[in-house]
Amino acid sequence: xxxxxxxxxxxxxxxxxxxxxxxxxxxxxxxxxxxxxxxxxxxxxxxxxxxxxxxxxxxxxxxxxxxxxxxxxxxxxxxxxxxxxxxxxx
Length: 90
What we know:
Blueprint: E1 2-5, E2 8-11, H1 25-37, H2 42-58, H3 65-89
Helix pairs in contact: 1-2, 1-3
C-alpha cells in the first residue's frame, strides 16, 4: 500500500501476508493472533493477545455486516501500526 504523508510517499506493508483475505470475524481473530506471535517478547505477545480476546468479547454481538467490515479494517490498520512500532524498536 502506498500512502502520502506530509507530502512524502511512504510505503506501508500489512503486518503479515493475507491481511487482504480477511473477510470474517474468525479470520480476523486468527490473523491477529498470528500477528501477536511476531512481536518481540513473550510479555508483549501476551498483552496484545489479551487485548485481541477482549475486543472480540466486546464486539461478539455485532451483527451489522457493514459495521463488521469497519471493525475488520480498523483492526488490521491497528495491527499494522503495532507491528511497525515494534519493528522500529529492534
